[in-house]
Write a structure and sequence with these properties.
CATH superfamily of one domain: Response regulator
Largest sheet: 5 strands, mixed, barrel
Order of helices and strands: HEEEHEEHEHEHEHEHEHHHHEEE
Shape: rod-shaped
Oligomer: single chain
Number of strands: 13
Amino acid sequence: MNVYTVGQINAYIKNMFTQDYFLHSVIVSGEVSNLKFHSSGHIYFTLKDESGILSAVMFRSNAVKLRQQLSDGDKIEAYGSVNIYEKSGSYQMYVTSIKNAGEGAKKEELERLRQKLSEMGMFDPMYKKPLPKYSFRIGVVTSPTGSVIHDIRQVACRRNPGVDIVLHPAKVQGEGAAQSVINGIETLEMEGVDVIIIGRGGGSDEDLSAFNDEELAMTIFNCRIPVVSAVGHGDDESITDLVADVHAPTPSAAAELTVFLFEDFVRDVNMRVMTLERLMQKHIDSVREAVRHRELRIDALSPASKIKLQRTLYANKSEKLEDLMNRKLDAAKHKVLIYIEKYKALSPIEKIGHGFAAVTDIRGQRVTDIENVRPGDRLKLIMREGLIEATATKVEKRE
C-alpha cells in the first residue's frame, strides 16, 4: 500500500471538488453566526441551520459590494462555490454575493421601496404642507374600537371642545388594511376637513406592515390636505411617517399638534379685531383725505368757483380803479383849490372888502363907464358884507 503526504491527500480532495460542477455555483441558505470582519476587508462567518454548519468566507473584492450591513442572526441566501482550503484541509464556501432571506428579504424589499420613494422626492421637506394654525374639522383615519380615537378625543376635549373630530373607521392591521386607510384619506379629503390624522398604536413590524405600502404613500403625498402620521410608538418609523407632512410620535401628540387652544384663538381674534379696526380707520382717513382733495379739485374746476375767482379779481381791480380815481380826484381837488385861491386873489369881491364896492344898475348890469349913468338912475352898490341901493344925484366925469 502506498503512503501519501497530507498535502497530496488535500490536493486530491481539492481536485475532486474542482471537478464537481455542482459545487462551482451554489446558493446556500442559513443563519449567519461567528461573524468576523478582518482588517484585510475579508468577511469570515458560518452558515448554519437545524442540520449542520458550513464555514464561509467573502473576500474584500466582493464584500465592498454589499448593500446591507451583515449581522449575526441574519437569515441569508449566499451565492458562490464550495472548495477546500489545502493549508488547513477544511472545505468552505467562497461567497460572492448575499441576499436576505425570510424576514431579511422583507427588510431588503422595504429598503428598496424607501430608496425608490426617496429618489422620487416624496420625503423631501420642500413638499411638506404646513399644518393650519386653526383646524376646526380634524379627520381621523383609525380603528373605531382602539385607544387611538379615545386619546385624540380626550386631548381635543381638553384643548378645545369646539373642534369637530371626524372619524373614518379603517382597518389598521392585516389584509386590506392599506386600502382601508387609503379609502379613509380620500373620503375625508372630499369632505373638506382641515387636517387628517392617520393613527395606530404600537406593534410588531408585521403589525405595522400596512403602513409601508407604496400605494398608501402615493395617496398621502398627493393629498391636498395636510396629513399627520401617528403610527406606532417610540422608534417605530414607517414609510407613512416619512411621506406624511408631519410625523407625531403618538396619536396624543398628533392631537396636541392639530387641536388649537381655545384661549390662543380668542386672544388671536381680539388682536386681529384691533388690527382690522386700526387698518379700517386708516383706510377711512385715507379715503376722506382723497375725497377732500377731489372736492377741492372739483371746486377749483367748477363754474361757480371760476365765477367767484373772477369776482374776486374784478373786485380787486375795482378797488384799484377806485383808489386810482380817488387819488386823481384828490389831485384835481388840490389843483382846484389852488386855482380858487388864485381866483380869490383876483376877485373884485375880495378887493371890495377893503372899502370898495361893485356898481351895477338896477337890472344887475355892471357899470363900468360913468357915461352910462344919468342923474336919478338907481344903482346897486355891492360890498363884501352886503348890498346898498342908491340913487345917482350927480354925475361928474373926472378929467
